[in-house]
Amino acid sequence: MHCEPESKPPRLIGLSGGIGSGKSTVAALWQELFHVPVADADGISRQLTQPGGAAVAAIGQHFGAEYVGADGAMDRARMRQRVFADAQAKKALEAILHPLIFQALQDLMQQAQARRQTAIVLDIPLLVESAHWRPRLDAVVIVDCSAELQLQRVMQRSQLPAQEVQRILGQQAPRRAKLAAADLVIANGDISLAQLRAQAQRAGDLLQLEQRR
Known about the structure:
The protein is of the alpha/beta class.
């Protein structure tokens, strides 16, 4: 009787970069080029805080009912203002969300293993800023560009004023800290999409992201 060997858990590749760095574009390119599943940590967080989401009750209990809107979702604008101004509030929110995000990720890994997929890319905007992520990852890839280019890109796509974008950038880890955390860097400066695609291809080859179809 022939038994197939048990598949190994998929490797977990963390993908990060500052706002406007092009991280989401790289994630989309990897999906296209290598057919690798990409899990969006922000997307999971939004699901947890939408009406009926698993984190909403704990958020209301810890922060107060005013942080839950009439629709039953977390009031994202109010919470954003709070965590920008209060580091302890940010830690408290992470303490609620991260265990639930990790559980959702564990479920995704089990599904990927059942499909014999060998890797999952986890798109994590604040990977470097949080100590929770690195021990769980097999590799970290940072998409990098200058702060000036980040500012230009974010203002162009969001129509936010420069002061607001700079405030957001100020909440993120400095560029040198992101680069220091990287096992691999994709440089997305003033280059074309074709050039970025070539870098994504090389990085994916090095990480062995190709999935059997």
